[in-house]
Write a structure and sequence with these properties.
The protein is mostly helical. The protein has eleven helices and three strands, in the order H-H-H-H-H-H-H-H-E-H-H-H-E-E. Among the domains are: about 170 residues, no CATH class; about 80 residues, no CATH class. Helix content is about 55%, strand content about 0%. It has a three-stranded antiparallel β-sheet, with no helix packed on it. The longest helix is centred in the middle third of the chain and has 35 residues.
Length: about 375
C-alpha cells in the first residue's frame, strides 16, 4: 500500500516519520496518565483543584484516552506502538516487506487481544472500564455464546497468534528452538535417566576389564564337557534298536561287492568332467606330462564281447581274492586280454580295495 510505503524523497520521509513518532508519544502519555475523574465523554464534573483534567496532555488527552480505553480496553496501547513503528520506518526510509499483510495482521491483533482480555477476567482499567473495552466485551460474549468458554478461548488465542505472526517476526519454529534450552534444563527425569545409563555403562566396562585381567593371569577356563544322562542314553539306545529292521535268521549273507568293469569312454568322460585340463606334475624340474585320457579308444565293432567269458573271469578273480592271482587258461582269449588291458579293447577289472586296475599277467 502506498500510504504505508516511504517515498523517494528522503527528507519528506524523515519529516513524516518524526511527526508520527511524536504523535505516538502523545497518545502513549495520554493513556498512561488517564484518570476516570477527569472530564470526558462520561464525566462532566471538574477536578477538585480547579483544573478540567489531570491528564498530562490536558483536556484533549483526557477525552482521547477515555474514548480509546472505552473502545479497546488495555489493547489501546497497541495504537501508539503501531504508529511509532511505522514512523520509525519512514524516518529510516525503509519499506515494509508486505504492507497489506502487516495491515491485516495489525487489525486482527487489535480485535483479538481485547476479546482475550475480556475472556480472562483481567481487572478493569483504573477500576472503571472493562479490560477489553466495548469491542472486546461484545466479541467475547459472542464467542462464549456460540462456542462456549473452551471454544471461545481456542479461537481467540489462535487468531491472536496468527495476527502476531503476520505483524511481527514471531515464528513458531524459532520459539520452539528458543524454548528447548530451558526445557532441557528442567527435564529432571531425562537427566536421571542419562546418569543411570552412564553408570551402567561404566559398571559394564569395569566388569569387562576385570575379566580380561583374570584371563591374562589364569588363562581361559576350558569348556565343561557335555555328558549325556543315563535316561537320555537309554532313550537313544532304544530308539536305535527300534529303528533297525529285524533280521531274518534264514537270510543269506550278501557277498561283498566284487570288481567292477569300467569302460574307457566312461573313464574319459569322468576325467573330462573332473578337470578340464591335463594333469601336470606338481613338483620337479622336468617337463614330463602324463598322457592324455583321450588316447583311450573303443573296441572295434567287428570284435564281439563274450559275456560268459567275462562273468567266468570275474568269478575267478572274486574267488581268488582279486589280489594279483593268475587267471585260468580258459579265460585267456579276447575276453582275458580285454579284462587285463592288454587287448585291443583296453578294458580292465577294478579292485574295490585298491581303487584301480588289477595288473595281473595273462597266461598264454
Amino acid at each position: 500500500m502506498r500510504l504505508l510505503t516511504p517515498t523517494e524523497n528522503r527528507r519528506l520521509n524523515e519529516t513524516v516519520g518524526f511527526l508520527s513518532m511524536a504523535f505516538a508519544v502523545l497518545i502513549a502519555l495520554a493513556l498512561l496518565s488517564y484518570s476516570p475523574h477527569d472530564a470526558s465523554f462520561n464525566v462532566a464534573a471538574q477536578a477538585p483543584d480547579g483544573h478540567p483534567a489531570s491528564n498530562w496532555i490536558g483536556l484533549i488527552g483526557a477525552y482521547s484516552a477515555d474514548a480509546i480505553f472505552q473502545t479497546f480496553g488495555y489493547a489501546a496501547f497497541l495504537l501508539p506502538m503501531g504508529i511509532f513503528a511505522l514512523g520509525l520506518r519512514w524516518l529510516r526510509s525503509q519499506a515494509l516487506d508486505s504492507p497489506l499483510g502487516k495491515l491485516i495482521g495489525y487489525a486482527l491483533l487489535v480485535i483479538t487481544l481485547p476479546a482475550l482480555l475480556a475472556l480472562w477476567n483481567v481487572p478493569n482499567v483504573r477500576g472503571a472500564i472493562p479490560p477489553g473495552g466495548l469491542f472486546g466485551t461484545v466479541l467475547a460474549e459472542g464467542l462464549r455464546g456460540t462456542l462456549n468458554s473452551v471454544g471461545a478461548h481456542v479461537v481467540a488465542l489462535a487468531l491472536f497468534l496468527a495476527a502476531l505472526t503476520l505483524t511481527t517476526r514471531f515464528s513458531f519454529v524459532a520459539t520452539h528452538g528458543l524454548l528447548q534450552g530451558p526445557v532441557k534444563r528442567l527435564d529432571v527425569v531425562g537427566r536421571v535417566k542419562a546418569r543411570w545409563t552412564a553408570w551402567r555403562g561404566a559398571r559394564e566396562q569395569e566388569r569387562q576389564r576385570k575379566r580380561l585381567e583374570e584371563i591374562k593371569v589364569t588363562g581361559r577356563q576350558p569348556a565343561p564337557p557335555q555328558t549325556v544322562g543315563a535316561k537320555d542314553a537309554r532313550k537313544s539306545s532304544s530308539g536305535e534298536l527300534a529303528a533297525a529292521p529285524p533280521r531274518d535268521e534264514f537270510e543269506e549273507e550278501k557277498p561283498a561287492p566284487g570288481p567292477v568293469l569300467v569302460l574307457p569312454e566312461a573313464a574319459a568322460e569322468a576325467a573330462r568332467k573332473k578337470g578340464g585340463v591335463e594333469p601336470k606334475i606338481a613338483h620337479g624340474a622336468t617337463n614330463f606330462r602324463l598322457p592324455s585320457a583321450g588316447l583311450l579308444r573303443m573296441a572295434e565293432k567287428s570284435e564281439k564281447v563274450q559275456e560268459d567269458e567275462l562273468k567266468e573271469c570275474a568269478l575267478c578273480c572274486r574267488l581268488r581274492g582279486g589280489n594279483g592271482h593268475r587267471v585260468p587258461r580258459r579265460a585267456t582269449g579276447n575276453a582275458g586280454r580285454r579284462l587285463h588291458g592288454h587287448g585291443d579293447g583296453d578294458f580292465g577289472i577294478v579292485d574295490p580295495n585298491r581303487h584301480g586296475f588289477i595288473d595281473s599277467p595273462v597266461v598264454s
